[in-house]
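Page 37, top half.
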Amino acid sequence: MAEEAKDAVPPSEESLVTSLLTEIFTSPINIFLLGVCVVLIYKIFRPSNGSGAGKSNASGPLEPPVPKMKRQDMNLAQLKQYDGTGEHGRVCVAVNGKVFDVTRGKKFYGPGGPYAAFAGHDATRALATFSVNDVKEEYDDLSDLSSMQMDSVREWEMQFTEKYDYIGKFLKSGEQPTEYSDEEDAKDTKSNKED
């Protein structure tokens, strides 16, 4: 037997490749799995436009980026101007006393989006109660929210802070806005670029 093992010829690479291909392409499940692998590899390695400079719409051309807003505090009347229908199409939302520029998420918060009711409004109560229709038309002091709802509000506030540009405080009626200097705007812009 030892002589038979010495005389046995190892399979050639060509016959190995042929048997592998035959195994793959003769079984429908293997063909399906191969297709899934090809699609996943394509999605991983395909080039994408991740520059964020502009967004393409359904017709193809790029929209120019909207310039960053200057830091400013807003009351409800001022906030309502940023509902996505204005000159620049800018969308702002207030969450827990802070105003955020959510224009990057315009497909969600802009006109026709699933959260369009938040645009130009204080969305705090709606986020706390998980109800898009719970947006108030006046300043809401949130004093009737439970501690669990307030915890939810704080989590939403953190998410908005991480994802969108902070513009300023959401002011109640009669409250005076803070005057922000150009240095604060420049410092804020620089810290966002470092992130």
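Page 37, bottom half:
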Amino acid sequence: MEIHQSAVILLLILSVSSFTHGQPPAHIKPRYEKFLKQHYNPDMTVQKCDTVIRGNRDFIHSETENGCKKINTFIKANSNDIKAVCGKAGKPYRNMVASTKPFSVVTCKLHSGDTHPNCKYRGVQDTRYIVLACEHGWPVHYDEGIYKPNGS
């Protein structure tokens, strides 16, 4: 069996191309990873709000006296579908991007708590359009506001 040199070169190009397109640039990677930790959880349920938020140091928040983040939304989708909002599955909205289809989400709102990590949350499951800030095609921020296409 003879393998042509052009076939080997093509395979190498395809391999490198899929690798480089599968990872964010180095200067964006930390923000993308933080976004995933805070907002991506395909298995999230309303009952898991306390456990998931307490188990993640990125939820210590300086906007409150006690360090508890007031609200956090988890997107229940695969990461490729979320990333696609930064491309063809999104449309410009203010200085961010809004999804063209709704996503299943769980929003955890602070109910009570003395100080982090004793924050107590109540969760609500919903389906809604999401709004993201993207850099070079990678989501780096989730906007907690409610977006309704066409003012509906």
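Margin note: Residues 6-20 have pLDDT under 50 and may be disordered.
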